[in-house]
Amino acid sequence: MAEHGKGPLAGIRVTDFSWVWAGPFCTLQLAHLGAEVIRIETTKRICVTRLLPPWAEGQPNPNTSGYFNQYNQGKRAITLDLQTSEGQEIARRLVAISDIVVENFAAGVLDRLGLGYEDLRKVKPDIIMISMSGYGQTGPLRHYISYGPAQVPMAGFSTLTGYRHWDQPMHVGLSYGDPNAGHHAAFAILAALWHRHHTGEGQYIDMSQWESTIALLGDAILHQQMMGYQPPRLGNRDPHMAPHGFFRCRPAEPGSLPEGMLLEDRWVSIACASDDEWRALCRVMERPELADDPRFATLEARKQNEDELERIVEEWTLTQDPFEATRKLQEAGIAAFPPLCNKELSEDEGLNAWGAFAEKEHPIVGVRKHIGIPWKLSRTPCEVWRAAPVLGQDNDYVFHQLLGMSEQEVAALKEKGVIV
Amino acid sequence: MVAAPYTAKLMADLGADVIKVEEPAGDPARARGPFPGGKPHPEKSGLFLYLNCNKRGITLDLTRPEGQELLRRLVAQADVLVHNYLPWEMEERGLDYASLSQTNPRLVMTSITPFGLDGPYRRYKAQDINVMAAGGWAWINGWPGHPEEPPLKAYGQQTEYQAGAVGAVATMGALLARLKDGQGQHVEVNAQAVVASFLEMTYTGWPYMRVVAVRWGQRPIHPVDFFRCKDGWIFVLCVEEHQWKAFVELMGNPEWAQWEVFKDRISRAQNYDALRPFLEDWIKDWTVDELYRAASERRIPFAPASTMGDLLRSDHLRARGFFVTIDHPAAGAYEYPGAPYKLSLTPWELRSPAPTLGQHNQEVYGGLLGLSQGEMEALKAARVI
């Protein structure tokens, strides 16, 4: 069986009560850094992401979901019903030999199970625990439930993001509050580990997903106060760069795209941050006369004539393949890239050459091309040591090896519906 | 701009002594605004002020050999160096990890890059929109079912914030590793890969089912949509059957809700064109806040499409003390987003507003590096600092 890598958190153990996406995305970062993350699950209430597609070859099964398997790589998993008092007792025993506890239930849920911070610090005084609820542990709305997709409008992204000519809030395309909360929670935990190393003290971290998402909008919050109104929807434009946007490219050849993709759905993103880059773009477009055109010579002029500017750029991109255009533009020092779909992402030359993918054998779905670790450490390399666990995959390891329970004990607890 | 400054902000806000090194012209974020009354001023840019509170600031021309030497002396005393210059820019200045680690083997150097330090795109430039494209995010955002509209960028510099947060995570990992043997290391963050790592369930659609992702909103289940209220917009999210039941009850059990075409969430999606007008008609007479609370009390996870003003007025955020007032000597007093997490023993804290350009030159060059007044005058005259 594969072993843990040499990541910097080797030897750190995490009891992971979290589910759906935000909490598991936090513990994914910890697993990437080499911590031993043990997910507490139960077949009585299976994690939402195990029940959502995409399933391998479309066959629904709690162990074949690509959603779950992407975000739980390198973790262990046991089954334990926390609604039973025996289950709660076993969870406390596991916490007693852990360094970190992560949870993202609504406020108060774990307290009612005898697994709140005050309970857990009794069994492990220096435990570091983070609660990642939607609204935080205090405040009048703390008991409201919060779903990932709702965090995006809650935090203000939907009134800021959108096409200029549509008077309509937009989503941002994913439940952005979740991975953002996961990144921030992982950082807070690591900072608490640093403090524990120097003082021996653990601590409790109250994190609100709502607040950690608003933390990405500091400039917009200040805009409201400095200008008296919030930033207008700019679509893909930028106040300080022009051209700046997605430009339509030459349609793909019939038959060259996988099913479901429109031949016309071909674009390239282009951003000119300086007048030099604009002049370089004129050369790439073979329109040297535009370089001296006063309508476009300065950023201010290009912003004033942006409709015409975008029309001219698109006239050129419509003759180009998006990948070919990207090569030409980047060679000339202009920031550009096509919007990759998931298939193109998995085949992307750069990501593959850099080593962005993790392909570990999974007991049921085999080898799939998951996204791996987006950073590299030169001296203590991080690696995905194992694919995501199937339900209860580590019951033996945790109950026997870590907790020293006997075969009979475990069998009895299975019988009683505790280890299920 | 955003990525490396955000890494350093996260560390500064938890107590690290961060010295921000700016080129003499200043961080480009100083030019971005927003500005009070819309008047550009390098000391009053909201983006800069937000990202750099709790830091000290010095100026240094890294294109000059004297500037590079001063940076080496500074780094000799530092635990961490974080930057988001393009890979070749630091190499050309002799400020790559190989040379800096000779000065200080304990150094953790964190390089935040759009595409990594090596690989075929190592010389590529990228702004936020390009990384959003390269990481697969832009593809899944945009008006669903409207292929005449381009992919849509999310507001702000989101790929930079996430690369910055990941930079902070990986940097802390390297600092914790250093506790074991005192050795630093080089941390490399690939922003394209960071974005690809958080595409919800859309990325694995390819390796698991050979399905190409579509824009968010083309959903097999409904309702998940924005609706107009009397005074703004609300996000209706009601895809679990018990939530739908509670919603129908809240609507007073209208007759249409019993129709076969709306019997489950898949039917509601297939017949959404028929469903939406009923919902529109009922929702339009509510205020956003009343409907949000009425739904939430019934455990239906609606959400307001918050404006910045809504956030600043929120009772809940007020009760938690989320916004903090920062009085900056040039820009004045404003409310900033505060702690993204509350640590019980070592809380997020505000110690100082963002530095003015070169504000701490004297104490860093004179104090920390021990330069004499004469040396500093000479460097100033040569426009190195």
What is the number of helical segments of chain B per DSSP (H or I, 4+ residues)? Answer: 17
Question: How far is it from the N-terminal to the C-terminal residue of chain B, by CA?
Answer: 20 Å
CATH overall fold name of the largest domain in chain B: Rossmann fold
Largest sheet of chain B: 3 strands, parallel
Give, in spatial order, the strands making up the sheet with the most strands of chain B: 3-4-5
Count of extended strands of chain A: 14
Q: Largest beta sheet of chain A: what is the strand line-up?
A: 3-2-1-4-5-6
CATH architecture of the largest domain in chain B: 3-Layer(aba) Sandwich
Show the helix and strand layout.
The complex is a heterodimer of chains A (420) and B (385).
Chain A: E1 13-16, H1 22-32, E2 36-41, H2 66-71, E3 76-79, H3 85-96, E4 100-103, H4 109-112, H5 117-123, E5 128-133, H6 148-154, H7 157-160, H8 177-199, E6 203-208, H9 209-214, H10 218-227, E7 244-248, E8 267-271, H11 275-284, H12 299-304, H13 306-317, H14 322-331, E9 335-337, H15 342-347, H16 349-354, E10 357-358, E11 361-362, E12 366-367, E13 370-371, E14 375-377, H17 395-402, H18 407-415
Parallel strand pairs in A: 1-2, 1-4, 2-3, 4-5, 5-6
Antiparallel strand pairs in A: 7-8, 8-9, 10-13, 11-12
Helix pairs in contact in A: 1-8
Chain B: H1 3-13, E1 18-22, H2 46-51, E2 55-59, H3 65-76, E3 80-83, H4 87-92, H5 97-103, E4 108-113, H6 128-134, H7 158-181, E5 185-190, H8 191-196, H9 205-209, E6 224-228, E7 233-237, H10 241-250, H11 265-270, H12 272-283, H13 288-297, E8 303-304, H14 308-313, H15 315-319, E9 323-328, E10 332-337, E11 342-343, H16 361-368, H17 373-381
Parallel strand pairs in B: 1-2, 3-4, 4-5
Antiparallel strand pairs in B: 6-7, 7-8, 9-10
